[in-house]
Write a structure and sequence with these properties.
Layout: H1 15-51, H2 56-79, H3 88-116, H4 122-148
Helix pairs in contact: 1-2, 1-4, 2-3, 3-4
Keywords: Membrane, Transmembrane, Transmembrane helix
InterPro entries: GtrA_CellWall_Glycosyl (IPR051401), GtrA_DPMS_TM (IPR007267)
Protein name: GtrA family protein
């Protein structure tokens, strides 16, 4: 008992290892939702550019807003489904606030490239939109996990109650050995 099938005794993982494994899973889930959001963002951006005469940054803002909606659903119901769900109004307000900052970062990069440097070909638009998304994603990951989808408090470790100590009057002294 207490041994793995290989015959080695197993010990529980360290607290650091558990935290690293949780963070790794969280980053993977965030990346999966973010990857889907990236595809939505770029597809909507290029679709809007192809079928309308909207300026590049306006088309990008529309695409970013569509991606924000799809990302919220993915984050709430996949990445952070185990997080606190009690304050949805607060959660959505903060999500929209931080997503808005991300939108400004993302489209600020595209705006600077397009209107500041004159890089306005479809390929350049996509490259700088992608670069802006990457920079904004770093901000979003930090802000969402820190402020929006907050972790529930960890349960206190289970403690084993100590047996009650008998009262002094109830204590029995150990038997005395007879001297021979």
């Amino acid at each position: 008992m207490g041994r793995a099938s290989s015959g080695l005794q197993t010990k529980p993982p360290s607290a650091l290892r558990v935290r690293v494994e949780r963070l790794t899973r969280e980053v993977a889930k965030f990346g999966a939702v973010g990857g889907a959001g990236l595809l939505v963002n770029l597809l909507v951006f290029n679709l809007v550019r192809a079928v309308t005469d909207l300026p590049v940054v306006r088309a990008s803002v529309i695409a970013t807003v569509v991606a924000i909606v799809s990302n919220y659903l993915g984050f709430r119901y996949f990445t952070y489904r185990d997080r606190d769900k009690n304050a949805r109004t607060r959660e959505m307000t903060l999500f929209l606030l931080f997503s808005g900052v991300g939108l400004l970062i993302e489209n600020g990069v595209l705006f600077a490239a397009t209107y500041g440097f004159g890089w306005d070909s479809p390929l350049q638009n996509n490259v700088f939109k992608f670069l802006g998304i990457g920079i904004a994603t770093l901000f979003r990951f930090w802000s969402y996990r820190t402020w929006v989808f907050r972790a529930l408090p960890e349960p206190a470790p289970a403690t084993v109650p100590l047996p009650e100590q008998p009262l002094a009057a109830e204590r029995v002294s150990p038997p005395q050995r007879a001297r021979v």
